[in-house]
Structure prediction request, 161 residues.
Amino acid sequence: MGMADILWRGALIGIGGTVLMDLWAILLHKLLGHDLPNWAPVGRWFWHLPKGRVFHDSIAEAEPFANELALGWIGHYAVGILYGVLLAAFMGSGWLAAPTFLPAFVWGVLTVAAGWFLLQPGLGIGWAASRLPDPTRARILNLAAHTVFAIGMYGTARVLA
Prediction:
C-alpha cells in the first residue's frame, strides 16, 4: 500500500469518525435534550487564526465573520480528516489492512487534548472548559464524543480493509 492509499484511507477514516460524532450529537439532542453543537463560534475562531489571534477572552466578542457557521463546519471536518490521516500514517499499511480498536481508541481520546488545550481556551471558555458553569459535565461529554469519534474511525477502517 503506497502513501497515496494511506492518505485517502486516512481521509475517509477521519470523515467516518466525524460523521459518527455528529450522529452521536443528534442522538443526545433527540434522547436527552442536549444542545446541538454550534460550529459558528469555531468558524469565527478559525477566521481569526490567520490574523494571529489564537486565544480570546470571549469568542462572542470577537469580530464576526459572515460565513462563520460554514467555516466552522468545514473546520470541524478538516480537523477530523487530519486526525484520520495522522492515525493512518502513524499506524501504516499493516494496521489499515487489519485494523484493531485500541490504536483508534487511544488516538481518538488523545485528540480531545486539542479541544481542551487549544480550541476551548481559544474560544474563551478556559482550559478544558474550566470557565463553563459545569466543566466536569463538559469534559465527560468531550471524552464521550471523542470515544465515539474513535469508534467511527475504527469502523470506517474496518470497512475499508
Q: What stands out?
A: Residues 3-32 form the longest helix (30 residues). Residues 3-160 form one domain. The mean pLDDT is 97. The radius of gyration is 16 Å.
